[in-house]
Amino acid sequence: MQIEVTRDVFRLAQVFTISRGSRTEAQVLTVRITEGGVAGWGECVPYARYDETLDSVTAEIDSLPERFDRAALYDLLPAGAARNAVDCALWDLEAKQAGKRVWELAGLPAPGPEITAYTLSLADPAEMEAQAAKNAHRPLLKIKLGTPDDMPRLEAVRRGAPKARIIVDANEGWSAQVYADLAPHLVRLGVALVEQPLPADADEALIGMDRPVPVCADESAHDRASLPALKGKYDVVNIKLDKTGGLTEALALRDAARAEGYDIMVGCMVGSSLAMAPATLVAQGALVTDLDGPLLLAEDRDPPLLFDDAGVHPPSAGLWG
Questions:
Q1: Residue 133: pLDDT above 70?
Q2: What is the mean pLDDT of the chain?
C-alpha cells in the first residue's frame, strides 16, 4: 500500500467571508492510496478553528503504518481532516477493487440528488441583498452572519430573495443575549434553521432557552462522542466529513443522531467536488444539505459533481466511489 499526499489550490469565484475572516482560494490536501495497481483518492480541508494546518494534517497522514484497513484507521488517527481524506480514499480504493459503487459496499440504497444550500458571503447589507437577488432562483440560501450588525443583513437578504428558504450560520459569533434578541426576528423573516449561534464552549446557555427556530450544532458536534453534550441544546446535528474523520464515522454519526431524535444537516468546508462526493451519500434524506463548495469555486476537479435544478447529484464513478 502506497500513500501519496499532495497540496492543491482551487481559486474561488469571489472573495468568501465569514465572521472569522476572508479567503480567495481553497487549500486542500489530496490523498491517493495505491494497492495492486489500483488507486483510490480522497480530499480534506484542514481547518484552523480545529488547530489544523496543511503541515500538521500531512504529518498525521505520514505517521500511518505501511498497512492498515478502515477498521484500524479509526484507532490510528483521531476524528479530523487527516482521517477523513484517508478514509474516503480507502472507500474509493475498495470500490474500484470490487468493481462496485461505494453505496453498494456500505449496504446503502442507490443515492439520488439532494437540494443543496447556496452560501452568501458575509458583506454589507447592500452587497448581501445584491447577492441574494442574483441567487433568488435557488430554493435554499445560507447566510453567513455572526456580527453585532446582523439584522440589516438578514432583512436585506430577505428583500433580495423573498421566496427562497433561508438558513443562517452565525459561526459561533453571537452571545446568548444577541441570539435571544434575534430569535423572534428569525421567525418573522422565515428563517428555517440557525446554525451554531453561540461559541461551542459557551453553548450551555442554550439549555432551557426558547428555540422558536431549530438550532443546529456545528462546531459543537464532531463525531458520535459529541452527542451526549448536545442534549437539551440543539435540534439538528451538522455532519461534516472533515469533522467526523471520514465517511465511515459520518454514516455512524448520522444513524446515532437520528436514533437520539436529532434531525440531520450535512455540511462541508470550502473544497472541491472530490470532498463533497462522499458526503452526498450521508446527505440522503437529510433535513438540510449544504454541499455547495464546488459552486463557490472558479475551478474544480474533472469530472466535477453535477449540480442542477434537482440539486447536487451523487458522484460519477470517474470522480469517486
A1: yes
A2: 95
Residue 162 in this model has a pLDDT that exceeds 70: yes
- Give the pLDDT confidence score for residue 17 in this predicted structure: 76
* Annotated catalytic residue 142: no
pLDDT band at 19 (very low <50, low <70, confident <90, very high): low
Taking residues 170-183, report their average pLDDT.
Answer: 91
Tell me what pLDDT residue 296 has: 95
- Which residue is catalytic, options 142, 233, 240, 243? 240
Q: Is 240 a catalytic residue?
A: yes
Which one from 142, 144, 233, 243 is the annotated catalytic residue? Answer: 144
Give the pLDDT score at 53.
Answer: 97
- Kindly report the three-state secondary structure assignment for every residue of the chain: CEEEEEEEEEEEEEEEEECCEEEEEEEEEEEEEEECCEEEEEEECCCHHHCCCHHHHHHHHHCCCCCCCHHHHHHHCCCCHHHHHHHHHHHHHHHHHHCCCHHHHCCCCCCCCECECEEECCCCHHHHHHHHHHCCCCCEEEEECCCCCHHHHHHHHHHHCCCCEEEEECCCCCCHHHHHHHHHHHHHCCEEEEECCCCHHHHHHHCCCCCCCCEEECCCCCCHHHHHHHCCCCCEEEECHHHHCCHHHHHHHHHHHHHCCCEEEECCCCCCHHHHCCHHHHCCCCCEECCCHHHHECCCCCCCCCEECCEECCCCCCCCC
